[in-house]
Design brief:
The protein is α/β, with parallel strands linked by helices and about 350 residues long. It has 11 helices and 14 strands. Helix 1 crosses helix 11 and helix 6 packs across helix 10.
């Protein structure tokens, strides 16, 4: 009998969390696991290979602050909605009787979903045999200025057996964003970045010589597109061909990126790993807010290493973007740095196989 994996994921604003979970679900299914991906966000068409999908009644972030959740129509979540969704989630868990339970981001994020995730953990511990309980996180998580929130995360993580960090510590260390690293590191393993794209650079292709401006699959890219259009005439690459991408398919993006002169983008996980593996030079303009520090931290750490140029979102203007473009074009190629580890999907499968054995 195939070992079953119960994989919970909740995307709130962009689709990066769901996309990464789908990549891992496909990789696990291809290796012989029976995977159920349980998604709590807006329904998205996914390629899951042999994995199965269960769509919970969807919720999203009410706005870019990520402070409150709502239904897709913007109405607030009431207790009846929460109770029904929680009951559906727990019923699924008991029916699946999995060998592995994975929560994407929790308890290092998605704390607004505690109303269903804390009962999920309790129910998982009550199963016989008890499953391996795993937290799956990005290279960075949202920084918390609250010592109480960090302590709460550490306390909740006591219910977990393993922390899979989908990043490369040679580039970005988890300790840079999570203040309680020393309390969780004994159960943490870096897997490398997770991607399913062919990220091998080539010498020629569709994007040769172009400047690629992309805003991925998120909902907050309009200011970057507007600033980039105005910055073009002010920059040293004004005479190049510029390609503006909104919600591009990832394969299309990589095909353009791998032979472009310059990439201008936000600093989401998926975009950055593809940029590090394929781009020549890059400018990152991270999306940031009081509750969303991950993109800013990622961009700043890479800029401090000299790999990219960065413009903080709060200082984005055509002039500041043009200046960053000039810095990127004067600086070294990303390809002159050691390649990042992008074998996270295969490493995750191997690690979970090893832990089950």
């Amino acid at each position: 009998m195939k070992p079953r994996v119960f994989f919970y994921v909740q995307h709130l604003l962009g689709i990066g969390h769901l996309r990464r979970a789908a990549i891992l679900a496909r990789a696990l299914a291809a290796d012989g696991f029976d995977v159920l991906l349980v998604s709590g966000g807006a329904p998205i068409d996914l390629v899951l290979g042999g994995a199965r999908l269960h769509q919970l009644p969807p919720v999203r972030a009410r706005d870019e602050s990520l402070r409150e959740l709502s239904r897709l129509d913007g109405s607030p979540l009431d207790e009846n909605f929460r109770a029904a969704r929680r009951a559906e989630l727990l019923g699924l868990l008991r029916a699946e009787a999995p060998a592995i339970v994975i929560t994407e981001q929790f308890p290092f994020g998605r704390t607004q979903l505690r109303f269903e995730l804390l009962p999920l953990l309790e129910a998982a511990h009550g199963l016989a045999p008890r499953p391996l309980i795993v937290s799956s996180v990005r290279d960075l998580v949202r920084r918390s200025v609250s010592a109480a929130r960090v302590a709460e995360t550490i306390e909740t993580f006591a219910a977990f057996d393993l922390l899979l960090i989908h990043g490369d510590p040679q580039l970005v260390g988890f300790d840079k964003s999570f203040a309680g690293w020393n309390q969780v590191r004994s159960r943490a393993v870096y897997t490398g970045y997770v991607t399913d794209a062919d990220l091998t650079p080539t010498e020629s292709g569709e994007g040769t010589g172009k400047v690629i401006v992309s805003v991925g699959g998120g909902a907050v890219g309009a200011p970057l597109l507007e600033a980039a259009r105005a910055a073009r005439a002010l920059s040293v690459v004004a005479s190049r061909r510029w390609c503006f991408l909104e919600n591009a398919e990832r394969g299309d993006f990589v095909a353009l990126l791998r032979n472009s002169t310059l990439s201008i983008s936000q600093a989401g996980y998926n975009t950055v790993v593809e940029t590090l593996c394929c781009a020549d030079r890059a400018v990152l303009v991270p999306f940031g807010s009081e509750r969303e520090t991950e993109q800013t931290d990622r961009a700043r750490l890479l800029a401090d290493r000299g790999m990219v140029a960065m413009v903080p979102s709060e200082t984005l203007t055509p002039q500041s973007l043009a200046a960053a473009i000039d810095r990127a074009m004067r600086g070294p190629s990303i390809r002159s740095f050691p390649p990042c580890d992008a074998r996270g999907a295969d490493a995750t499968v191997a690690l979970l196989r090893q832990r089950l054995a």
